[in-house]
Fold:
Amino acid sequence: MLYPSKYNHLVRCTTSAGREVRILSNLFLGAADVVNEEVYDSFDAAERNGASAPSPGLPQTACEHFVEKGYLYTDPDAEEKKVRAISENYRTRDQIAAGLEGGQYGFITSLQCNLACPYCFQQKKADSTGFLSKRQVDSGLASIAKAEEHVAALMGAPSLPKISITGGEPLLRNRANLEVLDYLLSRLEDLGWPFNITTNGTELREFVAEHQATGRCRNVQVTLDGPREVHDGRRCFRGGGPSFEKICAGIDAALRSGWNLTLRVCLDMANVRSLPELAAFIIGRGWANYNTFSAYVSPVTDHGSICGDVVPRDEAHLLDALLNVIKDRPDVSKIFDVKHFRGFNYVERLLVQKNPRFPVIFRCEAVTGMYIFDPLGDIHVCLEAVGDPSLRIGTYDPMWRIEDEAFARWTTRNALSVSLCQACKVRFLCAGGCTMESFHREDSEVCMPFLREIDIAWHYFAQARPELFA
Structure:
């Protein structure tokens, strides 16, 4: 007797040449096969009818292949045993950090920002924390070093923590901010720890004029939300002035100075159709000629109703709109990677990169235990929670203290712990939904349209890259 996996998923699509393709995939182990009609219908019938196994008429060699790849099991309990075994490898934050060859940490220089982006989650908390101090930098770095001792012991080798510097706006031309930023960068350089900076880019030209590019900086991330008119309608200064030209000047200066620069577009229905114009601008500006330049689009959660009457029904709706833009203007995909659409990225990694990520037990850094140090002396695990003491997991200034109950509130939510997820075939992509969002919902369940994203992705690649299905 053979038992189908709970995580099998079937898709039928057509290539640009008109060839029908049937795909059998497994959303637990990251397997995918192009199959014939008999196999497709057999697995489809097993799923729809709750049958114990696909058609007994399948050849023995085919059944052996499907057992090997995790589509079928010879023991009805084998898959659940495998789920539990995998989960045992991810019990503690240190184990996760060891698997990543170093933990993840963040420093918030302040929540002050010179822009007034209407979709920003920090709007109501701006100016609420003051600025990070040198003492707090030292306390945070000492705490990181102590935490990494445990990670290194698990690895059996020295670990390298990954540091993020952000805000608010971390490059503000404010004396208190600049002094502590310079001190933090100097300490990181001495320690040899890699870091990245997330900035709105308005003060980037001045920053790179005062700081030499360093290999310790993995990247400086800057946001442009479209060509000039679109961007300035969304990301203006607090006084109402445009920011597009100043950001572009900063990008020019950073690239000329040798910094690794990543351009992000916060994507929604209000700016998705302007991507071809922005791609053309990037090419014309010469940024794409630098091997230190990269760009990507990522869906943004709208915290300020910027989309007006064109709010997407959900992220699958936005993904569909994005891929239709790319189909019409293929050059867009030469400039922008598509990130943070989980269903699409799953198929892309499996089909194009041949490097599927599976299974995902934890949703994000908030659940795996990222430590974020803020100017209030609090420790957070989620950037959206910074500035809200009720959501902290502990303190690092004036002393280190982790509040176990608060920490568990974040870290116990995963693909295995959320009751609604137990029967869901995408739970090892979704990993239980956003923990932060669950705090603000009565039902605490946060379902996303990842299965529809997966189907949209298969149909897109069948049309755009039919050679991948040969």
